[in-house]
Amino acid sequence: MELYNSFSNTYIEAGCDEVGRGCLAGPVVAAAVIVNKNFKQNLVNDSKTLNFKTRQNLDIYIRENAVDFAIAELSPEFIDEHNILNASLHAMHLALDQLGTRPELILVDGNKFHPYNYIPHHCIIKGDSKYLSIAAASILAKNYRDNLMIKLHDEFPEYGWNTNFGYCTKTHQKGLKKFGPTIHHRKSFRLDYDVEIDQFF
C-alpha cells in the first residue's frame, strides 16, 4: 500500500512517532520528520514491517531527502518519574523542539498527544502505515534506539539487548533472574516475568 505524502496538501507537516514504550530497559525515543511532495516512498513504511538492513538503508535516504528531521530520547529515570505515556509524548515534543523548520501541522502516530506550541495536531491510529512523514519518523526512531541498545549490549551482554533491544524475552528474563536489573532498566516496570514467557515484541 502506498503511503500518503500529505494530510492537508497545504500546511508544513511534521510526522511524529516513538519507539520503546513496551521495553523493560533503555530509553524511549521519538522522531519528528518533515517531508514534501518530492519525497519518494522508496520502501519507506511502518518500521515494524521492515527488516534491519532495509531500515538502515532507509535511514540514510530519509536523512538526505527529508526537509527536516530530529530525534530525542528520554531516560529510564524520566520514565519512572513521569510514566511511559508522558515520557513518550514529551520525547515527541523534544524532537519537535529541535526542528529548524517550524511545522504548521503535527501528525502523530497513535491516539494521544499533548498540545504543542499552539500548533494544530492530528492523532492517527496506525499512522506509520498511512503517512510518509510518520513512517519516516518511526524508522529514524527505531534505528536510533536499536543501535543504542546494541552499544549498551557491549557493556551488559547478559540480557541479549543486541537482539531483543530491551523487550521482554527469555534471554532478557534469564539475565534479570541471574544478575538483577541494571541502571538502564525501568524500575517502575514489572521486571519479574516468568523466564518461560514467549517473545511478544
From TrEMBL:
Has keyword Hydrolase? yes
Q: Name one Pfam family in it.
A: RNase_HII
According to the UniProt entry, its GO molecular function terms are: RNA-DNA hybrid ribonuclease activity
Record's keyword terms, sorted: Cytoplasm, Endonuclease, Hydrolase, Manganese, Metal-binding, Nuclease
Q: Does the keyword Nucleotide-binding apply?
A: no
Localization: Cytoplasm
Q: How is the cofactor bound?
A: Manganese or magnesium. Binds 1 divalent metal ion per monomer in the absence of substrate. May bind a second metal ion after substrate binding.
Q: Which residues form the RNase H type-2 domain?
A: 11-201
Please list the residues that bind a divalent metal cation. Answer: D17, E18, D109
Q: Which CDD domains match?
A: RNase_HII_bacteria_HII_like
Listed InterPro entries:
RNase_HII, RNase_HII/HIII, RNase_HII/HIII_dom, RNaseH-like_sf, RNaseH_sf
SUPFAM superfamilies in alphabetical order: Ribonuclease H-like
- In the Enzyme Commission scheme, what number(s) does this protein have? 3.1.26.4
Requisite cofactors: Mn(2+); Mg(2+)
Q: Which domain of life is it from?
A: Bacteria
Task: Describe the reaction catalysed, as an equation.
Answer: Endonucleolytic cleavage to 5'-phosphomonoester
Q: What does this protein do?
A: Endonuclease that specifically degrades the RNA of RNA-DNA hybrids.
Q: Give the family, as the similarity comment puts it.
A: Belongs to the RNase HII family.
Specify the protein name.
Ribonuclease HII
Q: Which organism was this protein described from?
A: Epilithonimonas ginsengisoli
Q: What is the lineage of its organism?
A: Bacteria, Pseudomonadati, Bacteroidota, Flavobacteriia, Flavobacteriales
